[in-house]
Design goal:
It is a single chain. This protein is of the alpha+beta class and 204 residues long. It has six helices and ten strands, in the order αβββββαβββααββαα. The strands form three sheets. It has a five-stranded antiparallel sheet with strand order 3-4-5-7-6. A three-stranded antiparallel sheet has the order 8-9-10. Strands 1-2 form a two-stranded antiparallel ribbon. The chain is globular, with a radius of gyration of 17 Å. Helices cover 32% and strands 23% of the residues. It binds adenosine-5'-triphosphate (ATP) and magnesium ion.
Length: 204
């Protein structure tokens, strides 16, 4: 099998200000998701994910690897297997992101919110500052467990209220009997864009 370094090297992006296009990748890689700083690929026939960072974000590869080394060895987080200049290798997590759950109408129960709280508490107890906790960074596994799959910003010093805001939305809206459990993707993207621009606020 090719080395992780070779696989990461095979990934070529073309970037504009708001858009990233995948130009090339090795056949052993299966694209599984895009973020603001990287694309994630499953290495075929393995249980590993290769996260390849865009050139201007490649320093985050080292940062995220350091965070994985600081986190406790707990099923709430994937394990780290390797790191390179612009990539990390972590466990592949099978399941639905919370964003997918809302899009597909898969119910999110209160105990899952408590599990996320517990995972973030463990990270805090390790001296980290869990940040950038949004719906695409949390996976509900097929067997009903929570995994936090993107810890890249857990060392930022700025206070992040995203998780408190999401919890508030869960308690004040989602939990209510008549609140729809399936939400169209374009509505969620619209809410996320308005939240990002601070046009809507949930918490204090
Ligand atoms: N270990 C994993 N197992 C399964 N899917 C994953 C895994 N890591 C990433 N993904 C998928 O790839 C997407 C992008 O990965 P990730 O969130 O790590 O990138 P990012 O650029 O750091 O994101 P952000 O925009 O939150 O900063 C995730 O939302 C998820 O759908
Ligand atoms: Mg992410």
């Amino acid at each position: 099998m090719k080395s992780y370094k070779e696989l990461a090297k095979s990934v070529k992006f073309s970037r504009t200000r708001n858009w990233t296009k995948l130009l090339e990748k090795d056949n052993d890689l299966e694209f599984i998701g895009a973020g603001r700083s990287a694309f994630a690929f499953r290495i075929k026939e393995t249980t590993f994910v290769l996260k390849v960072f865009f050139p201007e974000f490649k320093r985050i590869a080292q940062e995220e690897a350091d965070i994985y080394k600081t986190l406790p060895n707990h099923p709430y987080f994937p394990s780290l297997y390797d790191k390179g200049e612009n990539y990390i290798v972590i466990d592949y997590v099978e399941g639905f992101t919370l964003f997918d759950c809302l899009a597909k109408g898969i119910a999110i129960k209160e105990d899952k919110i408590n599990q996320i709280d517990e995972a973030l508490k463990l990270a805090r107890e390790s001296g980290l500052n869990p940040s950038d906790i949004h719906l695409r960074n949390i996976i509900l596994t097929y067997d009903g467990h929570i995994k936090i799959i993107d810890v890249a910003r857990f060392k930022q010093t700025k206070k992040c209220t995203q998780w408190d805001d999401l919890k508030l939305a869960f308690n004040k809206l989602y939990k209510k009997k008549y609140f729809p459990k399936k939400i169209p993707v374009f509505i969620m993207n619209m809410i996320a864009a308005l939240y990002k621009r601070k046009i809507i606020r949930l918490g204090s």
